[in-house]
Amino acid sequence: MERKTFKTFGLFATAALITAFSACQNKDAKTTETKKTDSTTAAVSVNEKIVFVNQDSLLTKYDYYKDLKNKFEKKTKDAQSDLQSKQQAYQREVTQYQQSAGTLSADQRKSTEERLGRKGQELQAYQQNAGGALQNEQAVETEKLYDKVAGYLKTYSKEKGYKMVLTFSKGNSAILFADESLDITSEVIKGLNAEYTKK
User: Fold this and answer.
1) Residues 30-52: pLDDT tens digits?
2) Signal sequence: where (predicted)?
């Protein structure tokens, strides 16, 4: 049986968070990019500050994400271990049957093969269901992670007067250059961790 069903949370969450941030960025851009002024459209003015967060640093330094990652790595490891022990037990039964098949009657062989066939199908279904359940739980937790970050950034931006917060990720970013003074990553991580510690 393959173990592909159980994906590591780190890669899954990172990809999901990138998608979620991009979606939020596009959604926010639609509301802040243009404003109606006397029947004309005006882009965000230069006085309206745009800042960015380094997503790579956010994922490695946000305590909530680290705890979530550790939690799912353990769940994945436990699920793999459980599946492996079930597979080994099944394989022992198959081997035992193969060794004793010659001494069994035709009816006994038939019923044993049917039982082992059903057990093999159940094991395959268990693997798929366990993997699917874990992925669904990861998706729910990733959504919560995104909501926490987006909610914090919304409040933080109002306090600081920022009109837009972009995300930067090495090798996957639309930002080619940004002045370091616009990088609010450290402040955001500090605030998120303080908020998480309180809860």
Assistant:
1) 444 434 333 333 444 445 689 99
2) 1-22
